[in-house]
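User: Show me a protein chain along with its predicted structure.
Assistant: Here is one chain, sequence first, then structure tokens.
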Amino acid sequence: MPRPLQPSSEGTGASCVIAVCGMASEAAIASGAGVVTLCGLGSGRLAMRLEELVMREGKRCRGIISFGTAGGLDPALPSGTCVVADAIAAPDRRFPVESTWQSALHACLPQAIRGTLAGTDRPVLDAADKARLRASSGACAVDMESHHSARIAQRFGLPFAACRVIVDPAQRSLPPAAVAGLRDDGRIALMRILRSLIRHPGQLPKLMQLTADAGAAKRTLRTVRLRTGLAFAMPLQQRKSC
């Protein structure tokens, strides 16, 4: 059984921003004063846990941000590109982001691009599937948490923003081991990766490339976190009650 998706103990002051991440390592980067983190691969279960967390935080909750890595959909964007979302394209609808918060993030991250993030409930591994998703959504990157986060934020009338860093570029297909090692709680199961490699050793070069790209993406995420500062640059005047 996977571990329950638990919020961090960070951000126990008068108010907080909830940072929703896919991986535990991303949540560790996001944590800090004024931030409560929640991590786990995007799913209905993650949405349920986020809803419970928003209700538990009550009026302390200032907003929700989706933070972490993403898969590339725009072939022009290399690994390490930071995307500040201007909208979220879910399978059934599009969600807006809070424009003032988006602008504040971009002011802190002038090298980031603004673009639409696609939200899916399953990993998009194949380059051809990435191309189809870009054509249908107009998105430049994809992740599994932003659409759930945006939906909950809208339900509770909370400001929402998303900031993601591309790991795998659009033209690259990911090896099966990349998904085999993912756990529902956002942690890595190394034995699953090893078993996948033993069955299909030819995927090792792609996995090594992905590992290098993931390391670079994490360095960018740390820079993003440092530059956005307290509460991910959320303007104080945007505070709302849950």
